[in-house]
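Ops channel
N.P.: pipeline sanity check, posting one input/output pair.
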């Protein structure tokens, strides 16, 4: 058993593994060449709900001089703020980054309270930046990712985290690019690499689990 990258029939030679599908080798009739055929067996990690006790929220480059150029940037920033606000109420750690802050500025003002210790970087992949991996709290293996740009720093960071074995969930409505087509392609690529797409409200409701949660009314105020 090994993991494969595509839902198409593949040749004998191995491909890069990806979460999501298992395969087995079979032999086609009247063919002497073995092939790999995909079995649609979901990755068990994708069947679990977001867990506030295991989560860390990662905010990628939601910066003052970048957000005006992002398609639907106000919605992206507002959803990131909803995630960060709920994370603060529930004790979910927040790790933020800023790309080239001298040029792109600091975090947008509404997110500034959650980005006080933002990690400055020039690498597009935050996992290559000094201090980023050390900032991820031990014992929290579920990473909720939001930020910009979806097809550059978010994509490269997500791929870096997946290579290191992290369970990554991408808040798709809290991620953005200058052009929607770039975001759409990035979402496909991250999902094929094993990152699980979801929405801001999915995260919030899954963190709480129950309408009797003491923070339920606070959450409702965030999404109205």
């Amino acid at each position: 058993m090994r993991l494969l990258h595509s839902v198409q029939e593949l040749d004998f030679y191995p491909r890069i593994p990806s979460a999501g599908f298992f395969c087995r080798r079979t032999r086609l009739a009247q063919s002497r060449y073995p092939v790999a055929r995909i079995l649609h067996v979901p990755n068990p990690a994708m069947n679990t709900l977001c867990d506030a006790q295991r989560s860390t929220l990662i905010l990628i480059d939601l910066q003052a001089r970048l957000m005006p150029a992002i398609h639907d940037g106000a919605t992206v920033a507002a959803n990131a703020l909803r995630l960060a606000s709920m994370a603060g109420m529930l004790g979910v750690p927040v790790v933020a980054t800023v790309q080239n802050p001298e040029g792109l500025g600091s975090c947008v003002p509404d997110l500034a309270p959650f980005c006080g210790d933002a990690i400055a970087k020039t690498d597009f992949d935050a996992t290559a930046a000094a201090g980023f991996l050390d900032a991820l709290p031990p014992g929290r293996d579920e990473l909720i990712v939001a930020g910009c740009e979806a097809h550059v720093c978010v994509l490269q960071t997500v791929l870096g985290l997946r290579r290191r074995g992290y369970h990554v969930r991408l808040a798709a409505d809290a991620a953005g690019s200058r052009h929607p087509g770039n975001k759409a392609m990035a979402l496909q690529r991250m999902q094929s690499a094993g990152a699980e797409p979801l929405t801001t409200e999915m995260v919030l409701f899954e963190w709480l689990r129950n309408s009797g949660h003491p923070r339920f009314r606070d959450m409702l105020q965030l999404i109205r």
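N.P.: looks fine end to end. DSSP finds seven helices and nine strands in the chain.
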